[in-house]
Design a protein that fits this description.
single chain; about 375 residues; Spore Coat Polysaccharide Biosynthesis Protein SpsA, Chain A; 2 domains; about 25% strand
Amino acid sequence: MQGLIDNLWIRKMGKREMKANHSVFVIMGGGSGTRFWPLSRELKPKQFLNILGQRPLIEETFLRISPLADEERVFLVINRAHRELTRKIFKDRGIQIFEEPFGRNTAPCVGLAAIHIKRRWGDIPMAVLPADHFIGDGELFRTTLRAGIELSRRGKMVTIGIPPIKPETGYGYIKRGRRCDSIRGQGVFEVDRFVEKPDEKRALLYIKEGNYLWNSGIFIFQVDLILNEIGKYLPKLYQGLMEIEGVLDRDQYPATLERIYSHLQSISIDYGIMERTREPVYTLLGNFGWSDVGSWQALFELKGDQRNANGNMLEGLTTIIDSRDSFIVNRSEKLVAVLGANQLLVVNTPDAVLVGDLNRSQEVRAIAEAIKRKGFMDWV
């Protein structure tokens, strides 16, 4: 009965009122630049690159959700090192930008956003989403988010699961339980459990069983609920957040934030909360064409319509002979030529060149880490 009342109440509300007054969106934009090295660097990570179109991914993310919320209802959490990049992109926007002094993964990011939202808006639904994903169908994506927001108002923790199209080892998974409801034409399913990234054998098993979804990293919950869960399962983070909350409007805020963050554990909201919570968690199916654009190979697959007759995708000044299914990216004035190599990845920038097996592009971050260990900080 309560669900019926909620739905009637939603339908009676005007679209503008629904947009402006009842939810907040948090874009998590603090990631580091390792997976798209050498094009991405620590000072210009993937979310600030225009690798899928004319705009940086972080701006595309904002524009995708902008029909759902007034700009002041959009919170962007970034790493302080990316302040100028962010200001350049959003200088004429009214979104709320908060800086983390250090990257500490998504649990501190969500917690920091939550205390700011609570101070300004109280206990309302907050949808948190990564800044660097691809969404094919923006309207269906927004419909799914609206459904998740409505579900979260009932005190539920919500995630969006992606029906898998292949046995992917680079994603975490969600084991889907029974269907228990429907909102805005979207099926609502119980979550049995969250599963860490599997090996290839287990990923194949998940596909065969048919009740596993890719974990999109998109979550929706009420502010008080997620803060309570942080208090239960990440008490040191919660203690730090409460100390930060106590100085939100004071001169001590920057110094307190820096001090607290310097001691925080780096932990994801998935591992820290969602995999451990005893609160019921529900998932909606994300059939809107999703990718986390997590590697050069993922980008190669997304741009499939741009490949030539031999399956090669070429960007910049390049020539290629007797080669197939290769991805050549040239962002310099020098010519890149390839002869007799298949499934090759070449990324050429003015100061660094990457040559490798396209199928192993998930491992590019290991190169960035090795460079850092060698002390070659100008190339990180």
